[in-house]
Amino acid sequence: MSSQIIEIEPTHVHTHGSKSTIRNFRLSIEDDSNNGIAVELSCLGASVTKLVVPNYSNDEVGASSDDVVLSYTSPLEQYDDKNSPYFGCIVGRVANRIRDG
């Protein structure tokens, strides 16, 4: 019977100005053969910043892992007016604003 290891760990803390703090968390699960997935979430809109999954496209033993999320390289880029502030966000600008939604 194989066992699985589940981890939750803080990864990055970014500051914007003097008041805003953005924290990232990594959730990962691995099995005995070191195959697994990992997702990195930002507290800024619950943005998915990384999703790392095994790449089984080749027939090699010990597949590599790839990040499959299109996201900013830094959470601070979401503050930039040129970029959409809701890119990759799970929680959008109308969260907690729609009555009986």
From TrEMBL:
Top-level taxonomic group: Eukaryota
Gene3D superfamilies: 2.70.98.10
Entry-linked InterPro entries: Aldose_1/G6P_1-epimerase (IPR008183), Gal_mutarotase_sf_dom (IPR011013), GH-type_carb-bd (IPR014718)
GO molecular-function terms, A-Z: carbohydrate binding; isomerase activity
Cross-referenced SUPFAM superfamilies: Galactose mutarotase-like
GO biological-process terms attached to the record: carbohydrate metabolic process
Protein name: Uncharacterized protein
